[in-house]
Write a structure and sequence with these properties.
The protein is an all-alpha fold. The protein has one domain. The protein is built from four helices and no strands. This is DMT family protein.
Length: 113
């Protein structure tokens, strides 16, 4: 499997945990004190780091630091959009499209030779 694909797959999985750690508590722990949500989110974030650190180490063998960051941002926005719609029942707005197009431009500039 190509290094960029291994990196992307690990970052996708990492972002699922990250997005849940950052925003999932708003739906599932809204009636609990913030400290409970913070501690449980830290526990979820551990799994994010267990995937993100190897993803970055693998990716850095062929990608630049900037390329890794842009890949993370693109994947992060994609995961966040899906999370917003399917978990948090938010409506998908055109703003996500505009943000995605901005990231597409950033991706072009970072990955061009």
């Amino acid at each position: 499997m190509p290094v960029w694909l291994q990196t992307a797959a690990l970052l996708c999985a990492s972002n699922v945990f990250m997005t849940y750690a950052w925003y999932g508590h708003l739906k599932t722990l809204g009636d609990r004190p913030w400290i409970v949500a913070a501690l449980l989110s830290w526990g979820v974030a551990l799994f994010e780091y267990l995937l993100m650190v190897p993803a970055n180490r693998i990716g850095y063998t062929v990608l630049s630091l900037g390329q890794l960051k842009i890949m993370q941002e693109v994947i992060g926005l994609g995961v966040f959009m899906l999370f917003s719609v399917f978990v948090m029942q938010q409506t998908l707005k055109l703003d996500y499209l505009w943000a995605g197009l901005c990231l597409l431009g950033a991706t072009y500039f970072i990955f061009r030779a």
